[in-house]
Amino acid sequence: MSRHHRQIAVHAGFHCSGSEEFQRFLGANRAAIAAGGYDLAYPGRGGAAGGSFDCAWPEARHSDDALDFFVPPVASALAGAARGSDSLIVSEHDLAGRMPALLAGRFYPAARKRAEVLRAALGRPVDRLVVTVQPYDRLFRAAWSRVALEREVEPYADFVPAMGAFAGGWVEVVEGLREGLQAREVTVLTDHAAPEELLMHLAPGLRLTSPVPGLPMPVITDSAITMLQRHYRQGVRFAPGQRDRLLAFHAHQPQIARESGFAGLQLADLRGRYVADLATLARTDGIRVAGQIFPAIAAE
User: Fold this and answer.
1) Sign of the dihedral defined by the CA atoms of residues 67, 71, 72, 77, in that order
2) Which residues contact 296 (CB under 8 A, 6 or more apart)?
3) What are phi and psi of 278, to 5 degrees?
């Protein structure tokens, strides 16, 4: 396959949707994937080397004229992954936008701009875009938990009013990513896909005979978050590995059933909105919605 016809597949990982788990899987199977004709790149984690540079991605406040400023660092990360294979898989953990914006009720407002930066860095439109979505109430709760894992943060209930009144949604974000990347094919997964399944959607012709599982992801429980927040408020800094040991301990402790944080009518509205948005995406030409979550959410 010539470089001109090189296939480019992009995994746009939304928060708390298994992106890091998938990237660990890709890393563990890099040699086999390369043997199948695919290079791998994770631009927001510093290319193949790891490390993050969030400043390489524009946010909503940046004008279109400023987008060229962000292209070179992303292009540099992508160039570090190029080894001359027939095709390229790009997995970006926060292509649509940064997680704290969700807590303020801003639903990935810079998704299209950030996608335009990636397309410019790639130098051409992409052939395939795969994203994993989830119900709004689950996403908001998971996003708060991830922020609370890293630093002191206000109680979840303080963010509920803004999150419950968020503007936009999956329709605007998926279409923004598609238009920004000029993606020829788009697959929207409504279930948490195993890494092997996600890879199949990105590279349908690639088959790993003996895939190596990636390193397991830590289990984040409410009791662990409560303990971490208590430590953060006291100014505690964790030594390497200490936080992981705390998470592992609480993963085996009994947990109280988690509340959504949203009132009954508000929760029903969020879930109904999710179903309606998925239905809109499923009716959109060029977008394929895959998964079994429609009946489950409607039943709730």
Assistant:
1) positive
2) none
3) -65, -40
- Helix, strand, coil percent values for the chain (each to nearest 5): 50, 10, 40
3-state class (DSSP) for residue 288: strand
pLDDT tens digits, one per residue of 2-49: 344 679 999 998 877 888 889 889 989 999 999 999 999 887 664 443
Assigned token pair, 82: 């190029």
Rounded Cα distance between 92 and 228, Å, is 28
Residue 254: both structure tokens together: 């009994």
d(CA 204, CA 195): 13
pTM, two decimal places: 0.88
Residue 41 φ/ψ, nearest 5 degrees: -145, 140
* Domain 3-134+167-214+270-299: top CATH class: alpha beta
Rounded Cα gap, residues 149 and 226, in angstroms: 9
User: Two tokens at 23?
Assistant: 């990237």
What does the domain layout of the chain look like in residue ranges? 3-134+167-214+270-299
Alpha-carbon distance 135 to 146, whole Å?
A: 17
Residue with tokens 């994993």: 132
DSSP state letter for 106 = B
Residue type, 47: G
Query: Which residues, other chains included, contact 116 with Cβ-Cβ below 8 Å and sequence gap of 6+?
Result: 67, 180, 181
- Give the residue-averaged pLDDT of 202-230: 89
Query: What string of H, E and C letters represents the secondary structure of 67-133?
Result: HHHCHHHHHHHHHCCCCCCCEEEEEECCCCCCCHHHHCCECCCCHHHHHHHHHHHHCCCCCEEEEEC
Q: In what order do the strands lie in the sheet with 128-132?
A: 38-41, 87-92, 7-12, 128-132, 185-189, 287-290
Q: Which residue has the tokens 């949707």?
A: 17
